[in-house]
Write a structure and sequence with these properties.
This is Cyclase family protein. Pfam families: Cyclase. With 178 residues, the protein is an alpha/beta fold. Helices cover 11% and strands 26% of the residues.
Length: 178
């Protein structure tokens, strides 16, 4: 078994989507003054590697705290746009930029989640039919092609959450390692 971290590190001043809140990570308590260390975080709900709830782009749609945990992990596969057969019943991840041209095909498959570099139009359309999306992933090229892996991308349990940073992890079975 191999565990692959697909998450961007969260750091003070890191790049964010234009107009999103600036990330601030500051030391609030130190060992010397408090006998423990503690950081204060200030960031947007769509910082770094994150999951988007349908409510992100659709008023009144499901929020993170309303979605069952099963929506944030499961059997998954990396696919390419030109692949003739995308598997059913799995999360799908794209290692290339994907746009609205894939929406009909994805809507027919109804995967529990989709990840990768998704256009805003595709993301809006997917969230509109209740498919959660993961963006800000790194290292998708390290995942095996043509075989399943287990993906985990749990959000914080934010009341009325429209999105949340996640620690995105793929677990690849030994027989599927490259």
């Amino acid at each position: 078994m191999r565990v692959i971290d697909l998450s961007l590190p969260i750091a003070d001043g890191m790049h964010v989507y234009p107009g999103d809140p600036v990330v601030k990570v500051k030391v609030a308590h130190t060992y010397e003054c408090h006998s423990w260390e503690l950081r204060q975080l200030s960031l947007g709900s769509h910082t770094g590697t994150h999951v988007d709830a349908p409510s992100h782009m659709h008023p009144g749609a499901a929020t993170l705290d309303e979605l069952p945990l099963e929506r944030f992990f499961g059997a998954s596969r990396v696919v390419r746009i030109e692949d003739p057969n995308w598997p059913e019943g799995r999360g799908l991840f794209f290692s290339e930029s994907v746009g609205l041209e894939c929406f009909v095909r994805l809507a027919e498959l109804r995967p529990p989640f989709i990840g990768g570099e998704l256009s805003e139009e595709l993301e809006r359309a997917l969230l509109g039919i209740g498919i959660v999306t993961y963006t800000g992933l790194q290292g998708l090229e390290r995942l095996p092609r043509g075989t399943d892996f287990i993906f985990y991308g749990f959000p914080l349990r934010i009341v009325c959450g429209d999105g949340s940073p996640v620690r995105a992890v793929a677990v690849v079975a030994a027989e599927n390692e490259q």
